[in-house]
Amino acid sequence: MDHHPAYYVYLPNYMLEYVVGETNPRIDADLFLSKATPNQIVEVISAFHPRLRLTRNAEEDHELLLKLFIEKVAPRLSRLISSLNGNKNYIQGLFACPVYKPDQLTSRWINSSADYDPKRIDMFDTGTLMHLRSGKYRLAAESLQHFIESYTFLSQAEIDEIIGAQTDAEDTLHDTSIFLERSVESIESIHLQLRLPTLSRTKRGDLEEELKCAKASLRSRQGMFNAAIEDVGFLRALAKHHDPPKTSTRSKLADREIIGALAEQHEFIKEHRPVKTSNH
Q1: Is the per-residue pLDDT at 278 higher than 50?
Q2: Any idea what the CATH number is for the domain that residue 172 is in?
Q3: b/e 65-98 (16+ beta carbons within 10 angstroms → b)
Q4: Structural domain tally of the chain?
Q5: Same domain, 112 and 170
Q6: Please, which residues bridge with residue 225 across strands?
């Protein structure tokens, strides 16, 4: 027997007051809207969309609340299967599909009707944001270009997503620079050991094998490091293109990190060559 995953949303118990139909009970969204207080509407919207954050101004905008409820909540209520479970404070709604995607990690603040444009949000999320989250930054830029052609500008929340991706890329750069440094340190350590005059033939052979592996690791990590630099540079350019430059302390530190790691890599390649050894 096939078992399909279950998805739940927890609604306030007062929603039972709006259940209609005996053979096929359902929550009547229109009935709810005709009697609900603004706070109750906000509570139900938040149950379905926990990362949709409303400011005090938005919570007091009745027209906006109705729009959000009708477009984002009402269609789901018609597919809800309610069940009593003994808890007096909420009812449990069962869905055949996710209520919201797990990767929607960023809270979206809404202050007024101007902040809520479903088509705009969908175009940005399914194009630019999806590529930013998966590390496909150049595809994100292409999607962003199409987005700008439609909407002409980016909101601060959309710019913040690009800056967030830049921060993630800088974290990756930091990690890869550490890996690269460790590879250089490992190779240098082996070089020093190979220069020992008392080194046995067996030990020398073992070290030479270690050196081969360490050099292979270095090449791989150099590739990762170079890719990380390109990503950071690309995202900084993208952010500056769509937002006035802001030089943060974090960016200055990342700049020094890039320069230091590049200098170390350059000196290693310039001054060190594979050690030629002879078998005794």
Answers
A1: no
A2: 1.10.132
A3: beebbeeebbebbeebebeeeeeeeebebeeeee
A4: 3
A5: no
A6: none
- Residues 44 and 108 grouped into a single domain: yes
**Domain-located, residue 279:** no
How deeply is 2 buried, as exposed, middle or buried, from its count of CB atoms within 10 A (0-12, 13-18, 19+)? exposed
pTM confidence score:
0.59
pLDDT score of 277 more than 50 = no
Its domain, for residue 26, covers 7-116
- Segment 217-270, tens digit of pLDDT: 999 999 999 999 999 999 999 999 988 665 444 555 555 555 555 555 555 555
Count Cβ neighbours within 10 Å for each residue of 169-181 and write b for 16 or more, e otherwise.
bbebbbebbeebb
Please state the separation of Cα 84 from the chain's center in Å.
Answer: 36
- Alpha carbons within 13 angstroms on the beta-carbon side of residue 178 total 6
152: alpha, beta or left, given left = phi > 0 and alpha = psi -120 to 50? left
For residue 1, what pLDDT is reported? Answer: 46
Question: What residue type is assigned to position 82 of the chain?
Answer: S
Cα–Cα distance, 49 to 268 (Å, whole number): 53
